[in-house]
Each structure stands twice: as structure tokens, then as C-alpha cells.
Design brief:
The complex is a heterodimer of chains A (276) and B (350). Chain A is an alpha/beta fold and 276 residues long. Chain A has 6 helices and 15 strands. Chain A has helices at residues 48-64, 79-88, 106-120, 140-148, 201-210, 257-266; strands spanning 14-18, 21-23, 29-30, 37-38, 44-46, 67-73, 92-96, 125-129, 151-162, 165-172, 175-181, 185-189, 213-215, 235-240, 250-252. In chain A, strand 9 (151-162) and strand 10 (165-172) form a beta hairpin. With 350 residues, chain B is α/β, with parallel strands linked by helices. The chains are: A alpha/beta (276), B alpha/beta (350). Bound molecules: flavin-adenine dinucleotide and adenosine monophosphate.
Chain lengths: 276, 350
């Protein structure tokens, strides 16, 4: 795919932010029959690391110019989260919504989102969060990159453009890797890597006027058995309650703390005179 | 562009054999996560009467193969990169996938480290199969050669069984720290094949410019951990946690919400999406004990919890339960430990 910056002309950067609306906190229920997640009762918020992904895109837009499209796959209510993103400075919002997309695993989700990106045409950078708080696999970003056949830079804490190249810092277990690559590229952004701005009322009003486009499997020319539960190689077989190693749960009152410390020392659990 | 191909293709599971494990290595050594996975691969291979096959990409793979052999790996497949320019997902995916396509493994285990999670989804999609992420228990249905993977569910009480019935390989990740380290195996012989590859063609202009080494807090080897949760009330509550940890010579842990709130950096997070720990002593202060936290600390030897709610799930998982406010119990514990320490000459053996 030709990047819009590599054509020689000064063309505005085209950025895409993949955003998922997730249930706030713990109000999640499992459908006992189908073993699928029932999100309807919980209030939706922008997935936390997706807020950082959007912020990273907005900062590049401020410096380099360009255009940001937010795409989200989810139920109709996810429109609110898209409007919120537009209120922060995204230019366009697309909601990929269709009952047949329900219960997709990361394979089918990545395929559907990649189909949406293909439909959008040329782009330079796709930003995704590092993982979602409700499923938390972190597989969808790289999955989309694979379907599109483009490079990826994961776990970023900083991204910038220098002479047409994307420079990114990745936070790994043992240090920070600074990477340079040429767009088109997919970047995943770590939670708390920047401070997401708030939406502005005027932009939000504009967003509501402009509206959010809605695409379904027909718009994306995706056969129904490629998406949702049918298009998912993995399935949930059964549920179980975790086995607990029997622990005593011995109650200890505040005034019994000295005795507890004593016991832990006697049992050798706390070692005195030796630094752990 | 890779084509948008769906996964509903006829597969022949019976053509797939043996257990692959991705051997991630740093500075010439296998990472702890990949050693744990190698141990699991051997365990599963043994049950299936098959082989544990390690696959690796990078430089100096002979040394890596030798280390894998010493831990009981049966077959080693290496892609020795002759023009190494740093890690590249695209190039690594290419090399690993070519091993999968040639060898046709039935099961493929990858440590859920950052590198593992970067790669697993691309490899799975390239080979048109599924992945179960962050599994905490693995088993096999031997007659059907089906991998039974368990991962904590989205809710907070149950564990889900994830199956991949038609597609091969059956891929999973588990976080480092999830399983015990394997034992060394004396005199074991591993069949080693290392091929030379060039990455430039696949990595294109992707290059590592610089690597700033900085060791992240490793809770997996800590002997004592004091963790704080939302019950601390606010960020300054961690002062009390830190004081107690210091008095014990231990480390500070945390639940996820307090990390998300920015009270403490992510490197302190314990649980499904944080680190999996097994210290001698784990003190949970103001943590409710939701399943995603429990899976990361339940292997601790002794667990002490502090909670105002006697019904909190953490209570069942505790050896000792202090039913009190953290603002009272934490300083009291710290004070007591300091007293005991002061009363004993620092040189006396425990
Ligand atoms: C996919 C996924 C992955 C997740 N990964 C992780 C993970 O890796 N790690 C993790 O921890 N969580 C994880 N979670 C979140 C998890 O479900 C819980 O939300 C979280 O563990 C709860 O944190 P907490 O115990 O600090 O907060 P809460 O559940 O709100 O508990 C606070 C506790 O403090 C007690 N308390 C309140 N005031 C006081 C006081 N003054 N003194 C003493 N006690 C008090 C309360 O009684 C309560 O029990 C994950 C969730 C999902 C969906
Ligand atoms: N339904 C979705 N719609 C849009 N983006 C998504 C969706 N699911 C996942 N993503 C993106 O992929 C990232 C990783 O998600 P996950 O693999 O679910 O942890 C998220 O942070 C989002 O940026």
C-alpha cells in the first residue's frame, strides 16, 4: 500500500484510531446459557489505553497536520464513545455495528476491523490501545496489522514523525527500545503513557451534527460466516469455579498484630536479621 | 497485503503432531517465561507421547539450543539471522510461521511476555488458527489430542475453558510466572537444526535505533510482597504499604485499578494482566480478591489480608485475615516489625 506521505507531495497524514467501548468497572454479567459476555447493563467508557492511543494521534496531528478517523466495532451505544473522541479532536467517526459480529474472538474481530480499514483506503498510521480492560488479550492491534500486511510497533510510550519516518519508543521488560519505521504502520499505545485531553463542548456539538457513520457486514462485503461467533476459531467450552487451596483464614484483631508478627517470625516466614 | 481470509477452512487435525514452544531469549539466555513454557510443552508432549519442539529466532542460536537441550527439549528449530537489525514482528512472524507450515505442530505454546504477545496474534492469523491468551492451566484430552486451556473469565468468579477444535496449531499464551521452572535433565539429547535467514527483506525499513537497558521491577522472584488496592483510599495510602514493605525488606505490589488510576506504576501490578508472583509472604491491603488478582498471587506460601469487609472474597484465600482499616493495620504491622528488628542484633541468623 502506498503511504500518502511517500508520494512526494505534501499530503496530510492519514491516521486511524481503533477504539473499543468497554464496560465501566465490574458491572459485567455472563450469559449463563451462551457463555458470552452480556454488556448491556454496564455503563460504557472508552477503553483506557485507547484514550492514550487517541491522544498520541492528536499530538501528531497538532505537529504535522492531518486527519484522524476513529473506528469502533460494537453495539449501537458505542456511538457515544465515538462522539467523545470527536469532541477531543478526531475528524471522523465510524461505528461498525451488526448483530452478526457478536461474540467474535480476536481472529474475527481483527478481520472485521481490517476490512473496515481497507474500505477507508490509504492511511499512514493506525493507533490502537495496548489491550482492552474487558477481554485484555492485546491481540487485536497486531491481528489487524497482520491482515493488512503492514509493520507494527507495540507497547509505545512515545511516537513522533521525523522526515517521513515514524520514531517510537517501546517499553519492554528490560528497557526502552527506540524504533524507526516507514508508514504505513500500526502502533499500539500503553496505558498511562500520556495524559488524555478532555473533550471540548464546541467540538462535541460539531460531532453530533456531523454524526457517526454506521457500517455493517454488507458495507464491508463480509460473508456472515466470516464474522462473529461463526468466524471465530476458538470457543468457550465450559466454566469452572477456581479451586482454592484450603486456607485457614484465621481472624486477627488489631490488638493481636504483635502476636501475628511473632508467629510469622517463629515460622520463619519473616526473617529477622537477614535482608530479603 | 495479506488477504482477508476467514478461518473457516477445512483443516486436518490428524496431520498435526508434537508441541511447539517459542524460545524467547535475551542476552544469550532463555527468558524465565520461555523456560516455564518449555517445561509445560514437555509435560504435554509426554502425556501425548509426542515431542517438545523449541523454535527460536535471532543470533547465537547454538547456545540457546544447548540451554534448551539441558532442560529436556527434544527438537530445536532455529532461524539464525545473519543481518540482525533488532526485533521485527514482521520478520519474526515470517520465520516462525515457516517452521509451523513445514512441521505442522498440534500445539504451540508462547510465553505471554511483551515479545510473545507481540508475535502470537500475527502467527495465529497467518496460520489461520485461534489463540487462548493468558491461560493459567493447561491440560490435554489425549484421545482427541485436544488442548484444554483455562483462563480467567471476564467476570470475576469463574475460569473459562477455551478450545480450538478444528484449527491447528492450538495456540496459547501464559504470563511469565504462571508455572514452575522446569528441572534440568542430565544427558538429554536434542535434535538441533539451525538455518540461516536474512531479515532485511521482511523487516524493510524497520530498525532498532537504540536500546536503553532498564530493568523493570521483577516481582516474580520477590520473597515478600505487600500489595495495596482501592481500599487504600488514595495515592498517598501507598506510603503505608511502602513503609511495611521496607520494614520487611520486601517489594510493593498493587491491584489493577490503582495502577489505572496512576497511584503507582504498572510494574507493580499483580494479577492476570500484571505479574504472577509466588512469594513466601503476600500481604494484601485493601484488595477485594477478584479472580483476576487472585490468579496472580494464589501460589504465595502465606497470605495475610487486611480488609474492612469480612465478606470480601480475599478472606477465603488468606491464611490470616485482619478485619480492620488499612490506615490502622498497616502502621501497626510496620511498628511491630520494626520493634522485633530493633530487639534483635542485625547479624543474628533468623
Ligand atoms: C481482563 C481483566 C484483567 C484484569 N487484570 C487484573 C490484574 O492483573 N490485577 C488486578 O488486581 N485486577 C485485574 N483486573 C481487575 C479485577 O477484576 C478487579 O477489578 C480488581 O482486582 C479490584 O481491585 P481492588 O481489590 O483494589 O478494588 P476493589 O475490588 O474495589 O476492592 C477494594 C477492597 O478494599 C476494601 N476496603 C475499602 N476501604 C478499606 C479500608 N479503609 N481498609 C481496608 N479495606 C478497605 C473493600 O472492602 C474492598 O474489598 C482485571 C479485570 C479484567 C476484566
Ligand atoms: N471492537 C473493537 N473496536 C475497535 N477497536 C478494537 C476493538 N477491539 C479491540 N480493539 C483495539 O485493539 C486493541 C487491543 O484490544 P484487545 O486485543 O481486545 O485487548 C484495543 O485497545 C483497541 O484499540
Amino acid at each position: 500500500m502506498e503511504s500518502s506521505t511517500s508520494t512526494g507531495d505534501i499530503v496530510a497524514l492519514k491516521m486511524i484510531v481503533m477504539m473499543k467501548q468497554v464496560p465501566d468497572a465490574e458491572e459485567i454479567f455472563i450469559d449463563p446459557v451462551k457463555y458470552t459476555l452480556n454488556r448491556s447493563q454496564a455503563r460504557g467508557i472508552i477503553n483506557p489505553s485507547d484514550e492514550n492511543a487517541l491522544e498520541a494521534a492528536l499530538r501528531i496531528k497538532e505537529k504535522e497536520g492531518g486527519e484522524i478517523t476513529v473506528i469502533s466495532m460494537g453495539p449501537p451505544q458505542a456511538e457515544n464513545a465515538i462522539i467523545e473522541c470527536m469532541g477531543r479532536g478526531a475528524d471522523r467517526g465510524i461505528l461498525i455495528t451488526d448483530r452478526v459480529f457478536a461474540a467474535a474472538d480476536t481472529y474475527a474481530t481483527s478481520l472485521t476491523l481490517a476490512a473496515a480499514v481497507k474500505k477507508l483506503g490509504d492511511f499512514d498510521i493506525i493507533f490502537a490501545g495496548e489491550s482492552t480492560t474487558d477481554s485484555g488479550t492485546g491481540h487485536v492491534g497486531p491481528g489487524v496489522a497482520e491482515f493488512l500486511g503492514i509493520d507494527q510497533v507495540t507497547y509505545t510510550i512515545d511516537t513522533r514523525i521525523e522526515s517521513g519516518m515514524l520514531i517510537a519508543e517501546r517499553e519492554l521488560e528490560d528497557g526502552i527500545e527506540v524504533v524507526s519505521t516507514k508508514p504505513p504502520v500500526l502502533v499500539t499505545v500503553l496505558i498511562n503513557s500520556n495524559l488524555p485531553r478532555r473533550s471540548r463542548l464546541r467540538l462535541k456539538v460539531d460531532a453530533i451534527k456531523k454524526g457517526v457513520e454506521k457500517w455493517d457486514h454488507d458495507t464491508l462485503s463480509l460473508p456472515v460466516d466470516w464474522v462473529g461467533l461463526k468466524g471465530s476459531p476458538t470457543l468457550v467450552g465450559a466454566l469452572k469455579i477456581p479451586e482454592e487451596r484450603k486456607r485457614e483464614s484465621r481472624p486477627v484483631k488489631l490488638e493481636e498484630i504483635p502476636a501475628l508478627v511473632d508467629e510469622l517470625v517463629k515460622k520463619g516466614i519473616i526473617k529477622i536479621g537477614e535482608d530479603a | 497485503m495479506v488477504e482477508l481470509i476467514n478461518c473457516v477452512v477445512p483443516e486436518h487435525p490428524e496431520e498435526y503432531h508434537d508441541v511447539f514452544v517459542y524460545l524467547e531469549h535475551k542476552n544469550g539466555k532463555l527468558t524465565r517465561g520461555s523456560l516455564e513454557m518449555l517445561g509445560k510443552a514437555e509435560e504435554l508432549a509426554h502425556k501425548l507421547n509426542e515431542k517438545a519442539v523449541g523454535v527460536a529466532v535471532g543470533k547465537n542460536l547454538k547456545e540457546i539450543a544447548a540451554e534448551a537441550e539441558s532442560y529436556g527439549c527434544d527438537v530445536f528449530l532455529g532461524a539464525e539471522v545473519t543481518d540482525f537489525s533488532g526485533f521485527s514482528s514482521v520478520a519474526y512472524t515470517e520465520f516462525i510461521t515457516s517452521f509451523v507450515e513445514q512441521y505442522k505442530p498440534n500445539i504451540f505454546l508462547i510465553s505471554g511476555s511483551r515479545e510473545g504477545r507481540d508475535l502470537v496474534s500475527r502467527i495465529a492469523i497467518r496460520t489461520r488458527t485461534g489463540v487462548a491468551a493468558d491461560c493459567i492451566e493447561l491440560d490435554v484430552d489425549v484421545p482427541n489430542r485436544l488442548l484444554i486451556a483455562w483462563r480467567p473469565s471476564f467476570g470475576d468468579k469463574t475460569i473459562d475453558q477455551i478450545l480450538c477444535k478444528r484449527h491447528r496449531p492450538q495456540m496459547i499464551t501464559s504470563r511469565p510466572g504462571s508455572y514452575k521452572m522446569p528441572e534440568k535433565v542430565e544427558g538429554h539429547k536434542c535434535e538441533v537444526t539451525i538455518k540461516k535467514v536474512k531479515m532485511a527483506k521482511y523487516a524493510g525499513e524497520h530498525k532498532t535505533l537504540e536500546f536503553k537497558q532498564k530493568d523493570r521491577l521483577d516481582l516474580t522472584s520477590a520473597k515478600i510482597i505487600v500489595s495495596g488496592g482501592l481500599g487504600l483510599g488514595n495515592a498517598s495510602g501507598f506510603k503505608l504499604v511502602k513503609d511495611l514493605a521496607d520494614s520487611l525488606g520486601g517489594q510493593v505490589g498493587a491491584s489493577r485499578p490503582v495502577v489505572d488510576l496512576g497511584w503507582i506504576p504498572y510494574e507493580h501490578q499483580v494479577g492476570q494482566t500484571g505479574q504472577t508472583v509466588r512469594p513466601k509472604l503476600y500481604i494484601a491491603a485493601g484488595i477485594s480478591g477478584k479472580i483476576q488478582h487472585i490468579v496472580g498471587m494464589k501460589a504465595s506460601e502465606t497470605i495475610v489480608s487486611i480488609n474492612t469487609d469480612p465478606e470480601a472474597p480475599i478472606v477465603k484465600f488468606s491464611d490470616y485475615f485482619i478485619n480492620a482499616d488499612v490506615s490502622k493495620a498497616l502502621p501497626k504491622l510496620t511498628e511491630e516489625i520494626r520493634k522485633v528488628r530493633a530487639g534483635t542484633p542485625a547479624s543474628s541468623p533468623g
